[in-house]
Amino acid sequence: MTILFLNSSSYSHTPIDKWTDDTDETIICITPAKNVAEYKEKLSEGKFEIVAIKDWEDKTTIDIAINTIYNKKIFNKVISMREKDIIHAAYIREHFELMGQTISSAMAFRDKYVMKNLAIQNNIKVPIFSKVNTFFDVVNFTNKNKFPVVVKPRLGAGSVDTFIINNSLEMEENLRGVDLKNFIIEEFIDGSIFHVDGLIKDGEIEFIIPSKYINECIEYKIGKSTSSFTLEKNNILYTKLIKYTLILLKKFPTPQNTTFHLEVFITHDGEIILCEVASRTAGGKIPKCIEYRTGTDMNRTWFRNQLGLLTEENSVKREMLYGSIQCAPKHGKLTSIPKELPFDWVKLYEVYAKEGDFYQGATSSVFAIASVIVEGESEQDVTKRLNQVDEYIKLNTIYI
C-alpha cells in the first residue's frame, strides 16, 4: 500500500519514521520546501518519498504534483493532520475515489458557518451568527444585535484575525484594512470557555478529556499567555461536557478515525453553547498534557489508526491533573530568558525564543516564546502553578 501524506508540518511535529517503524508501507510526504531538508535528513530513502512545494497556498501546484505522482504510483490513502489541509485532502480523496474523511465532513469541522448551521439543524445551541463578506454585513448585524460581537474568519485557526468588538468606533478601527470575505460574525457569549479533546478509532471513542481555559485564546492580542488545565473527574462539569461531546459527535459527520478538539462556552447559568469543533488535534501543548494523563500520543495513534496499524495499549494512566501555558512575548528585543525553571512540579519546559530576537507581541494563540506543562493533584494546584510559572518567566525575561 502507498500512502499520500499531505503535510504542512515540520518533522519535529510529524516524525513519521518513528510512527511507522513496524510497517514497510510506502509513504509519499508532500510538504513545504522549507521542511524538506529536515525530512530528508531524518527519513530513509525507499520507504519515504519527499515532494517539495514552494508555495503551500498554491493549491493548484500541489494538485498537479499529486496528479503526477498518482500517474506514476497509485496511492491508496490520503492523510492530513493540520487544520488548514483537511478540506484540501478531502477533495483529493473524492477525486481519486478513496476512503477517508469526506468533503461534507471536512467542511462541517472546518468552516464555522457550515458548522454552526449544522449545529442548529441538530438542536445544538450556538451564538446568534451570520456570514460576512463586506463591512456592511457587520454593520447590518450590529444594527440588529447588540454589542459586543465577535468577527472571525470562517476558516480561521489560532484566533488569528479574530476581533471582539464592543462599539461602532472599535468596529471601524479593528476592521480597517481587513479583507472580510468569508468571515463570520456572532454575538459575544459571556461565560467560561472549555475545550474537550479525544480520539476516535474505527468509529468508537477511545477517550475524552475535558479541560478549562484560564485565559481565552483571543487574549494573546492583549499580551496574555494562553493556558488551560484538565478537569477533575469529580467536577460536575466533567461528566456534563463528556455527555455533550458524545451527542455532538454523533450528530456531526464525524470521521471513523480522527482526533477532535471541541471548544464550548458555559454561561453563568450553566448553559453549554458551541464555540467550534475540529476534526484534528489541539494546538500548543494540550496534546502533551493529554499524553501525560492517558499515556497516548494522539497524533501518532491517529496516524497509525488511519493506516490500520495496531497501537500498543499504554497502561500508564495518571490521576494527576495537568495544565499547559503558551508564554506570550512582550514588545522589544529579547536579551535574556530563563534556561530552566526552579519548580519540581514542572513536567516540561521548552524555550523557543533566542536572545536577540525582536517581538511585537504574539501573532496567534499558540505563538509563544516558551511552553510549560505543570502537574498537580487538584484544579486549584494546577491553576496556581500555571499563573506562578507565567509570572516567573515574565519577571525573568528581559527585553530592551
In short:
The chain has 400 residues and is α+β, with helices and mostly antiparallel strands. The protein is 32% helix and 29% strand.
What does it look like?
The protein is an alpha+beta fold and about 400 residues long. The protein has three domains: about 100 residues, Rossmann fold (3-Layer(aba) Sandwich), CATH 3.40.50; about 60 residues, ATP-grasp fold, A domain (Dna Ligase, domain 1, 2-Layer Sandwich), CATH 3.30.1490.20; about 210 residues, D-amino Acid Aminotransferase, Chain A, domain 1. The chain contains twelve helices and 19 strands. An eight-stranded antiparallel sheet has the order 13-12-9-10-11-14-18-16, with helices on both faces. Strands 3-2-1-4 form a four-stranded parallel sheet, with helices on both faces. β1, α1 and β2 form a beta-alpha-beta unit. α4 packs antiparallel against α5. The chain is globular. The model has no long low-confidence stretch (mean pLDDT about 95).
Blueprint of the fold:
Layout: E1 2-6, H1 16-19, E2 26-32, H2 33-42, E3 48-53, H3 59-72, E4 77-80, H4 86-96, H5 103-110, H6 112-121, E5 129-132, H7 135-144, E6 149-153, E7 163-165, H8 168-175, E8 183-187, E9 191-201, E10 204-215, E11 226-230, H9 236-251, E12 258-267, E13 272-278, H10 286-294, H11 298-307, E14 321-327, E15 331-336, E16 346-351, E17 358-360, E18 370-376, H12 379-396, E19 398-399
Parallel strand pairs: 1-2, 1-4, 2-3
Antiparallel strand pairs: 5-8, 6-7, 6-8, 9-10, 9-12, 10-11, 11-14, 12-13, 14-18, 15-17, 15-19, 16-18
Helix pairs in contact: 4-5, 5-6
